[in-house]
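User: I'm writing a tutorial on reading structure tokens. Could you give me a worked example: one chain, its sequence, then its tokens, then a sentence or two explaining what the tokens reveal?
Assistant: Sure. Here is the example chain.
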Amino acid sequence: MFNLYKDAIDPNGFMGLVSKNSNSTSAAQETHSRKIALGFAIASLAIVAVMSKGVEILSYSTTTVV
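And here are its predicted structure tokens:
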């Protein structure tokens, strides 16, 4: 039953890079993995920036109304 999942992981993708098969990694896989991690980091920073700007606007509007 577990053999069904053996071929499900693409060896050229991100999961192939982090799988236990360490001798199948290449420079292209490492570059692709870094692009994924960089995209996630940029998206996280953008979300935090939007949240902090919203808090700033909300706190400013409550101080000027009172």
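What the tokens reveal: The chain has one domain: 2-65. The chain has a mean pLDDT of 76.
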